[in-house]
Amino acid sequence: xxxxxxxxxxxxxxxxxxxxxxxxxxxxxxxxxxxxxxxxxxxxxxxxxxxxxxxxxxxxxxxxxxxxxxxxxxxxx
Amino acid sequence: xxxxxxxxxxxxxxxxxxxxxxxxxxxxxxxxxxxxxxxxxxxxxxxxxxxxxxxxxxxxxxxxxxxxxxxxxxxxxxxxxxxxxxxxxxxxxxxxxxxxxxxxxxxxxxxxxxxxxxxxxxxxxxxxxxxxxxxxxxxxxxxxxxxxxxxxxxxxxxxxxxxxxxxxxxxxxxxxxxxxxxxxxxxxxxxxxxxxxxxxxxxxxxxxxxxxxxxxxxxxxxxxxxxxxxxx
Lengths: 77, 232
Prior knowledge:
Strand content of chain B: 25-35%
Shape of chain A: elongated
CATH architecture of chain A: 2-Layer Sandwich
Structural class of chain A: mainly alpha
CATH topology of chain B: Rossmann fold
CATH architecture of chain B: 3-Layer(aba) Sandwich
Distance between the termini of chain A: 27 Å
Radius of gyration of chain A: 17 Å
Shape of chain B: globular
Number of helices of chain A: 2
Strand content of chain A: 5-15%
CATH topology of chain A: Mth169, Chain: A
Oligomer: heterodimer
């Protein structure tokens, strides 16, 4: 989950300033987001993807301010 | 007749007792509504108080909006019943899409607990109908995530439909970045739905309800709403 590009991210600005203070002037910008790891059962990859997409839209992400992307990987039984 | 004011209580709500005191001072009868309940116990008006419902996990208000109680609050709101969300309650109403926009981390990154001046922008809806436009109210804020945001086109719509209810301002009603405590777009402190019966605001009217607290301005909102409830 990341804030949409048009949404001001003061946390990101603060992190950029911190990195500059530590001697990394090459940092031009920082966007702070959220990482969520889900473990779920699914019949196949497509099924998992459509369920996760729905979860993102309904709860995990607020579409007014955030964008999301996700990856699905098999972890075995 | 004493009008019943339902006060929603989620795990982590912290302002419900202050709200009950405020309701009593305004002449109403407070009724606590636990989040797991499915009905409003005959409440004429519903208040969603401040706090950290469900620990603010994921996002402020994101989990609270699925509480069984919120289905009843939604029905009440859609039927035109008065609903007021204060601070965390405002965040919950936005997540529940009963109000437009979202509330983000303060631009200063600090939790701000201070007195603020608010300019009344519109005088429709149950909570502001007793006031005059341009009037300046004084109430405290107490939040870390109160920066109002709505996409540019939606912001234009809000202004066009008179949904911007309150703005942070100076003591005489003047607008300026120095009076905006959290970086809210257009200095917005409170918004209402198109119909005007649902109001969300970050400042705390329940903490401005007697001289000891430095301001009684918070009483105006509730007295106005109770008068509307009584007349309907």
